[in-house]
Amino acid sequence: xxxxxxxxxxxxxxxxxxxxxxxxxxxxxxxxxxxxxxxxxxxxxxxxxxxxxxxxxxxxxxxxxxxxxxxxxxxxxxxxxxxxxxxxxxxxxxxxxxxxxxxxxxxxxxxxxxxxxxxxxxxxxxxxxxx
Length: 131
Prior knowledge:
Elements: E1 7-12, H1 15-26, E2 29-33, E3 39-42, E4 54-59, E5 72-74, H2 89-99, E6 102-106, E7 110-114, E8 120-124
Parallel strand pairs: 1-4, 5-8
Antiparallel strand pairs: 2-3, 3-4, 6-7, 7-8
């Protein structure tokens, strides 16, 4: 027997704002709301319980004292079936910045960004079967 990641929970000051941001970034839709103000997002076709984890944005007023030990690494979807080419990372970077991400830096194979509340995530170059 094995487990899968069912949900990723992100504490945040403004769940509405981050739900709009992460929903647009991931192509997720709102799956539900909890009485505490948490908003659950997930893939539109699968909802909760599908192969991809849901994202729960949980309201908190506690400031984060240190950098989170976990962050998301994103890869542009691809290859594009119409052209059989990798997605354009520059185009995806521009889209993320237009949604409200901030550029923090770069490493060898990724761009380090932050969401509207400063939570770090990375945009990796597209992966292939050999990378």
